[in-house]
Amino acid sequence: MPNTENVPNVQLRRAVASSFLGSVIEYYDFLLYATASAVVFNKVFFSNLDPLVATIASFGTFATGYLARPLGGVLFGHFGDLLGRKRMLVLTMTLMGVASFLIGLLPTYAQVGALAPVGLVILRVVQGIAVGGEWGGAVLMSAEHATGRRGLWASFTNAGAPCGMVLSTLALTTTAAVVGERAFLEWGWRIPFLISIVLLGIGLWVRHKVEETPAFRAVAQAGVKRRIPVVDVLRNHPRVLLLGIGVGLAAFVAQSTLTTFTLAYGVQAGHARQTVLNALTLSSAFAVVGILGWSAASDRFGRRPVVVAGAVAMAVFGFVLFPMVDSRDTALLTLALVVGQGVIHPMMYGPLAALYSELFSTENRYTGASLGYQIAGLGAGVAPLLFAAIQRATGGQGLTLISSVIAGFCLLTVVCVLALKETSTRELQPVAVA
Questions:
Q1: Mind listing the pLDDT tens digit for each residue in 328-362?
Q2: Where are the beta strands (DSSP E) in 59-186?
Q3: Residues 85-103: what's their mean pLDDT?
Q4: If I label 13, which of 267, 286, 321, 382 is the partner at 20 to 30 A Cα–Cα?
Q5: Percent of the chain having pLDDT more than 90?
Q6: For residue 211, is pLDDT > 90?
């Protein structure tokens, strides 16, 4: 007879690898847009506007992707809880890859006028719906296969985000270096988006080899009476959902501050665009290690202590970040991003994958985890737009106010984390226990 003793371990490894790779691909596409919105789209799709207004408009299209993410979480969470995690993950990856490829084919404002930004917004919404459905399913594929060290295994999905940032930033900077500044703005920026179709093929091949999670199979085989998952979450778990949203908000505000707003602000402060992109790439690489390390620590010490420590550290760091960028010193800029994105932010962000999974029961876990995470993710979409508007209203000043806003979100996270019970010791039961 064939030896099946190690089948669960094999499936766990496949699930983790699939979740990580899928997350890398999804966030390559999603965050490629973030970088491009800061350095390219204001010139390509909003060339008729004042430069600062064009930057705000560009960040506005960036924000639409985050606004669409809760819709994706509800839509794919619903069917993921009813039909299975794996099917939805194949669909979300396909949507993201095709949308990103089409962005690479869009005509510019100079070619078709207002139709260009309209097309950009539509495809950004599709991206948001796709990534909104992707995260919950990818996290659950790892978390529900894991029998121990759930924080570490689930965090590979979150670690895919900075990996995607590294790849997307490298793709843009390499293309710019090869084709030159003028050609890059004219057509070179399209190449990283067009590459998405190749990554899509690789990702779908890997996902094909992963089985459905044991927890979902147990619920399906038990014939548990199914409710509409989103109604169940909103009616029976509103407090948990709201606290979960509050837990994640600061992490997302800090994430987009460090990866999107600081990129645009660094260039305004006098740093070369390539210098800021290099610092961002390095800090994103550190973030991968930080996310995995702090998530493993949350398995040992608990989710709450790690997230609270990160939120307090980020509240303080927010007042140091911009003076370091304003110094115009490349070493200080790099240090600021490495410490912020590579050390402090992962404390808040890494444990979220397991924490959100542990807040809900199997029959509504995809919907509940996705909804909490993606609504919190609105903070990442709105923050650069809000901060750019503050700058415009204060004539380029207002940095202390921006830092105070970041600290306020961190305080909210601390309060919400402390209001929740520790989740790291919970079992992901196949069926909710009354």
A1: 899 999 999 999 999 999 999 999 999 999 999 88
A2: none
A3: 89
A4: 286
A5: 34
A6: no
- pLDDT above 90: residue 102: yes
43-45-50-51 Cα dihedral, nearest 10 degrees: -30
- How many other CB atoms are there within 10 angstroms of residue 273's CB atom? 17
pLDDT on residue 226:
66
Q: Inter-axis angle of helices 51-83 and 115-143, to 10 degrees?
A: 40
Structure tokens at 149: 């060290």
What average pLDDT does the chain have? 86
Q: Which residues are CB-contacts of 362 (< 8 A; sequence separation ≥ 6)?
A: 144, 215, 216, 218, 219, 428, 429, 430, 431, 432
Is pTM beyond 0.90? Reply is no
- Angle at the Cα of 159 (from 157 to 162), degrees rounded to 5? 125
CB 62 within 8 A of CB 53: no
Q: Which one-letter amino acid corresponds to residue 63?
A: A
Distance of CA 373 to the CA centre of its chain: 9
Amino acid letter at 250?
A
For residues 430 and 222, is the Cβ–Cβ distance under 8 A?
yes
Task: Give residue 343's pLDDT.
Answer: 96
Contacts with 95 (C-beta within 8 Å, 6 or more apart), sequence order: 126, 129, 130
User: For residue 380, what are the CA distances in angstroms to 176, 250, 260, 306?
Assistant: 26, 9, 9, 21
Please give the structure tokens belonging to residue 176: 């710019």
